[in-house]
Design a protein that fits this description.
By secondary structure, this protein is an alpha/beta fold. The protein contains twelve helices and 14 strands. Helix 4 crosses helix 12, helix 5 crosses helix 6 and helix 9 packs across helix 12.
Length: about 425
């Protein structure tokens, strides 16, 4: 009996002893569908043993996080299809030259020559303004106001920035599409439809007290309510699943930019705490924890991301964009602190971090999260109050562009520089 058959037999034997002959249920993330492991079949012999292990160790599952659910032999990777290994997918490694990895996006090496003064000509770029904005901003808890000032709402700010950026990218030759271009959700699902799922999620947490509803944003135990959990499932899970369908099924871009603004804890949305902290970082998919990989759908999505070879393109683009953004904004790098133990820095790149987020996991193309500015920083707040404008204005004693144009200029300049240089090679 070869190693693979022996290993599978032992797993099945362990399953019988552990379950008394029963069958273990799949472990899934919220609202996820059971994974279709046959999706990995197209990647047979598209990666070598050494490349596969290196990507797991260095990028996607550092510190051995992959080892409980993926076993590697010289010839193949044995992948658990459920927590008890009652099913197993075998991914064969390439011997010698690997077959091309299938994916719909085009790396820079496959783009046609750029047109004169159009470094982004032919590049398909999707812009994904983060959050919902509009009347949904309070529900998302990405909204605050001070007295009679203009509300600070991340979803509205990202839309303004993305529309400015789109014009700049098109001028540079890019084909630009929006994952969403108006405030509000792309999903047709609403929180009321998710109450049963929300109750089930709360019961998984073994809470002693589950409430039906909560009493506003300052309610200290709102997280124990079915209302709060159903809203979270709506805007954080269902919405991103729908955006993933738009990106992968309709837009199919070469790169997706997830545009966000950052924040520090501000407390009461009507009496927020302002801070002197202000920083910048970019995120690319990686750094899965063992607990995350214990979820069957997450494990499959991680492998699809790894096998489509998004990481080299994500990293190369992020380096240049981060350099231009740090130069344009003057912001220092953000440093993740515990409990964000599943975020890892990219060695030698202080502005770039690996982190597993739903969107950068589900989007099947190089995807970059951009997180500049702290919205409840005093200067950032003052810049938001100034709105968008051409040229420069005095803000707190310094002549500045509008915060939206500064953000858009930095990203556009970074992308232009990257593609101009890469397309010469």
């Amino acid at each position: 009996m070869n190693f693979q058959k022996q290993f599978f037999a032992l797993c099945c034997l362990g399953l019988l002893f552990a379950s008394g002959g029963g069958v273990f249920a799949q472990e899934l993330s919220p609202l996820a569908k059971p994974p279709d492991w046959s999706r990995l079949a197209m990647f047979q012999e598209t990666i070598t043993h050494d490349d596969f292990v290196k990507l797991l160790d260095d990028v996607y599952a550092p510190d051995g996080a992959w080892q409980p659910t993926i076993k590697v032999t010289d010839d193949s990777a044995l992948i658990a299809e459920d927590p008890a290994w009652s099913g197993m997918f075998t991914l064969r490694f390439a011997k010698g030259d690997a077959k091309p990895a299938p994916h719909y996006w085009r790396p820079v090496s496959q783009l046609p020559p750029a047109r004169k003064n159009k470094p982004l000509s032919g590049v398909r770029i999707a812009l994904d303004p983060g959050h919902l904005g509009g009347r949904w901003a309070k529900m998302e808890e990405r909204w605050f106001v001070i007295g009679d000032s203009k509300p600070v709402a991340e979803g509205d700010m990202t839309l303004i920035t993305a529309k400015i950026l789109a014009k700049k990218l098109r001028t540079l030759g890019a084909t630009v599409s929006f994952v969403h271009s108006t405030a509000g959700p792309t999903t047709s699902v609403r929180p009321a439809q998710l109450r049963k799922a929300a109750e089930a999620e709360l019961k998984k947490q073994q809470l002693h007290f589950i409430r039906e509803n909560y009493n506003g944003s300052t309610d200290p135990i709102r997280q124990n309510s079915i209302q709060w959990e159903s809203e979270r499932l709506f805007y954080r899970i269902s919405e991103i699943h729908q955006r993933g369908k738009i990106v992968n099924g309709t837009l199919r871009p070469d790169i997706t930019l997830c545009m966000h603004y950052n924040a520090e804890a501000w407390g009461d949305e009507k009496n927020p705490t302002l801070t002197d902290k202000n920083h910048l970082h970019l995120l690319i998919n990686g750094s899965y924890a063992a607990a995350e990989l214990g979820l069957d759908d997450v494990r499959l999505e991680m492998l699809l991301k790894l096998l489509t070879r998004c990481y080299p393109e994500e990293l190369a683009i992020s380096k240049t964009v981060a350099a231009y953004m740090s130069g344009e904004t003057g912001l220092p790098p953000y440093v993740y602190q515990p409990p964000y133990v599943s975020a890892h820095p990219v060695p030698g790149e202080p502005y770039i971090w690996l982190r597993n987020l739903l969107a950068n996991r589900l989007y099947r193309n190089p995807t970059i999260y951009i997180e500049p500015y702290v919205m409840n920083n005093q200067i950032v707040f003052d810049r938001v109050q100034a709105g968008d404008y051409e040229g420069e204005r005095d803000i707190d004693g310094v002549s500045r562009k509008s915060i939206y144009r500064e953000y858009a200029d930095a990203v556009a300049d970074g992308l232009a520089a990257y593609y101009k240089d890469a397309r010469k090679k």
